[in-house]
Amino acid sequence: MSIIEDSKEIFENIKKVRPVMHNISNIVTANDCANITLACGGSPTMADDPDEVEDITAVCNGFVLNMGNTGGFMVETMLRAGKKSNEVNHPTVLDPVGAGAAKRRNQVLETLLNEIKFSVIRGNVSEIKFAGSKTSGAKGVDAAEGDKVTEENLDEMIAYAKNISEKLGSVIAMSGAIDIVADKNTAYVIRNGHSMMSDITGTGCMLSSVVGVFISANPDNILKATAVALSAYRLAGELAYKKTMEMDGYTSTLRMNLIDYMGKMNAEMFQGGAKIEVR
Amino acid sequence: MSIIEDSKEIFENIKKVRPVMHNISNIVTANDCANITLACGGSPTMADDPDEVEDITAVCNGFVLNMGNTGGFMVETMLRAGKKSNEVNHPTVLDPVGAGAAKRRNQVLETLLNEIKFSVIRGNVSEIKFAGSKTSGAKGVDAAEGDKVTEENLDEMIAYAKNISEKLGSVIAMSGAIDIVADKNTAYVIRNGHSMMSDITGTGCMLSSVVGVFISANPDNILKATAVALSAYRLAGELAYKKTMEMDGYTSTLRMNLIDYMGKMNAEMFQGGAKIEVR
Amino acid sequence: MSIIEDSKEIFENIKKVRPVMHNISNIVTANDCANITLACGGSPTMADDPDEVEDITAVCNGFVLNMGNTGGFMVETMLRAGKKSNEVNHPTVLDPVGAGAAKRRNQVLETLLNEIKFSVIRGNVSEIKFAGSKTSGAKGVDAAEGDKVTEENLDEMIAYAKNISEKLGSVIAMSGAIDIVADKNTAYVIRNGHSMMSDITGTGCMLSSVVGVFISANPDNILKATAVALSAYRLAGELAYKKTMEMDGYTSTLRMNLIDYMGKMNAEMFQGGAKIEVR
What we know:
Oligomer: homotrimer
Helix content of chain A: 40-55%
CATH architecture of chain A: 3-Layer(aba) Sandwich
Largest interface: A-B, 40 and 34 residues
InterPro entries (chains A, B, C): Hyethyz_kinase, Ribokinase-like
Binding site for ATP (chains A, B, C): 122, 175
CATH topology of chain A: UDP-N-acetylmuramoyl-L-alanine:D-glutamate ligase
Organism (chains A, B, C): Intestinibacter bartlettii
Order of helices and strands of chain A: HEHEHEHEHEHHEEEHHHHE
Pfam family, one (chains A, B, C): HK
Radius of gyration of chain A: 17 Å
GO molecular function (chains A, B, C): hydroxyethylthiazole kinase activity
């Protein structure tokens, strides 16, 4: 079956399971991540205390690890939650926020990759490059200028994503103007979205939370569920942009409309707008 | 006087006092809690440093303790702020976020209940059950499926709330599709609200902050002020839902409209829509 | 050239540089600060880990230090980031949130003022008074009743701001119904804005982030860039208020529209609405 045909069941499973999601988040985007988790059909829980995250992870359906705040006890929190998530076989997402931007953050990333097995790693091109090859040109949390997927370098970036996926043993979701979702054999190229999405903080963090919901309700179909998640999210961004212009709004209105459209999204709306190519 | 007649004075007192509220919050909902505190007529202050919370609590008019983040020094922060609030006789609200979800969190709750006297405990049914009887079926921060107030179990839940109130010495505000606010003698049953409110993160946290404002401006009328706070908040949700549908919006638009309607709320609007039954 | 003529270049420089901004923020307003940084043309990065903030500060274009959360390792984080920012000569903003409200916070402020050189200190009148003279009547994070700039005390407050600027060696941005931006010789008095802005949490925090973007793209013109930032932000508030009323919204709608209008703001819109007097 094609991924578009499969999407019907992927959306139905979210409705059926209503996955409870443990998210380790950060002070900047925690609220948006919780709200978009609810919007796309999950129930968010966000604990930070290392002494409780094992209990909480265990009763959820999946786990999203956003490494945006690494101060104090947070790395211990991440490790205990991640290991428990592996132990109970939950779908587990890593968002390597800001990978490449600081030595300390890179060490944390290395520790996480060594200690925890991730079903999906979702990042911008700079973050994925750093996770995969320890190189990137990132300054801060946005992808570096040179780190992008274009029609010109698409073949190369697809091969790179498949390669990293094999190396790390995780589905790779590399997001940007063009998104690539890949395991070692198959890549989905997604051409949905609107450029104004990058003028909202946390569009990456929110996307990782969305991926968490999709794969936790579809643990046997992780590659396709991730691709559908990215395409649905970007499509919600397109629809949100259109409504934002009608409201004479701008980036903050777009943020609201983006979350709204993730809430309205269903298989039918998805199938009407998804632009996914298999490679 | 009936609670509806009383409400006029309750709203007037908020305008008169404009209570300065110390909130210990969490990284997910702090911003929403601060904004709704402002909207309903308070002035929010949110400190986390254990070495300053006594000073800050002392100069405020009331204190709301949300136990959403218990990592690191936060329990010390909670205890120092709570004890100071008791010492200076300020109205004090506990929101036992996620009670029942993890052993560590339950221990924190027990410590808080032992060390601090709360004017009001505001939680969903699972959280209140855990605070009162150490039992609940909660997974994460949402109430468990079986933990709800319905027309069928209403008598039983009212008796339960009165019982817990007597046991803990606090007004109990148990929120859900039907809300119950009770002390040991009297219960108010509130039938306002819209189901979509539960698709926004932090509707519980925000409600606890609203209760804080209402009781801190009405310290001699805590039971009724709490019931008015819950009914007003749910009514704001009803009005917000109606406007959201007119705007063709969804959950994120609802969040905005909810805060807006708490800002517009006054005795007249309240009296036109409140559905409160005394039991 | 007048500041209004200068503003064209100030806005152009932001477009040219697109400054990457390191913000140390707090759990209440971090998301809003990041979004408004993006809206006015910067790229936000918010690290909290003391072991990475030097690396991250160094690759940015400027640094905004909001002292809203001082618990645990945060003071170390602030000091390491601030010293690095000074070392690499980046424009550096201090927001002394809640100065005067607690002994501990005042000690933190004193340490920051002793150890870090700030290009701009942006606060409400109470906070600036405390930073400058160790006196204020503040309760919590809002300015005390008596601490405001009015047409009656304007001469006195201008002299005070110039005096504090000379004493502390920083441009002073004192915000309220009337804003004053001053160095030791020159003051700009800004009469833009709408009173409803103070019913949104974080309007001060967001403004400090906006100042950061403006001065980091205009490091050779810090006094004027700060005055333009304040006037532009207040003007965005006026336009946002107007649209909010048209939408039949209230404070939460205003927050959204405020960020939207900072995104739409440009030299032309600014020159059509700025009300800045040189003194």
